[in-house]
Design a protein that fits this description.
Blueprint (H helix, E strand, L loop, with lengths): L1 H11 L4 H28 L2 H12 L3 H9 L4 H11 L5 H16 L3 H26 L9 H60 L4 H8 L3
Helix pairs in contact: 2-7, 2-8, 3-4, 4-5, 5-6, 6-8, 7-8
Length: about 220
């Protein structure tokens, strides 16, 4: 059966296969964690409300923009509310600080995948070297030493193959998630800059966000 073949191949790889298996399990957990986080993040986005909030800000209807962000888990609307709350001090700084925390959450545990991309092949190479050293211990002992050495080398290469496979499996989702982080960072920067421009435009038309923010300041 396939399961028996997998187990036998794993055991032939030597004791280094156990840390390689631990690396695979850790990589799987991190990839699953990041996939779930991004799926939940995507589910919270409400682009229609974001557009309504932008229109409200541009029209100087700060109360409406605030209400849109009150009963929603949309991170962009939450970012807007954070900025409006601190508009009497520095709206831009408050929104940037909030965005920084969001970016940090999106990058959480990514360093583990980055480490495993380098560590897994090194573990595999280490296992191969150890296996080859053991194989050459047969040289000079008997007539079948050559076949044992070649067989031992073949088994030792299992560790390298598994290590490289784990690195490849980590590299693909790692680059995918890094791209998603970069897109999120760009979206937040555009959101913050656009909001700043809309607030300035509303101020030129006589709408004072600072007065509204002072009423919303936490006591």
């Amino acid at each position: 059966m396939l399961s028996n073949i997998v187990v036998q191949t794993f055991l032939k790889g030597g004791w280094v296969m156990w840390p390689i298996l631990a690396a695979f399990f850790l990589a799987f957990c991190v990839v699953l964690d990041r996939a779930v986080w991004w799926l939940r993040f995507q589910a919270t986005l409400q682009t229609a409300k974001q557009e309504q909030a932008r229109v409200a800000i541009g029209n100087g209807d700060f109360a409406k923009a605030w209400d849109l962000g009150q009963n929603t888990s949309d991170p962009f609307l939450a970012n807007l509310n954070e900025g409006m709350t601190h508009a009497h001090t520095s709206m831009l700084a408050a929104m940037q600080l909030h965005a920084t925390h969001l970016i940090e959450k999106s990058e959480a545990r990514m360093w583990i995948l980055s480490t495993l991309i380098t560590l897994a092949p090194l573990l595999g190479l280490f296992g191969t070297v150890v296996g080859i050293m053991g194989s050459f211990s047969f040289v000079g002992d008997e007539q079948l030493a050559a076949s044992k050495v070649s067989g031992g080398i073949g088994e030792a290469l299992i560790a390298t193959a598994c290590g490289i496979a784990i690195a490849i499996l980590c590299l693909l989702p790692y680059n995918f998630f890094r791209k998603r982080v970069a897109v999120l960072r760009g979206s937040l920067e555009r959101w913050i800059n656009h909001t700043e421009l809309l607030v300035k435009s509303a101020k030129e038309h006589g709408h004072d966000l600072e007065t509204f923010a002072a009423k919303r300041t936490p006591r």
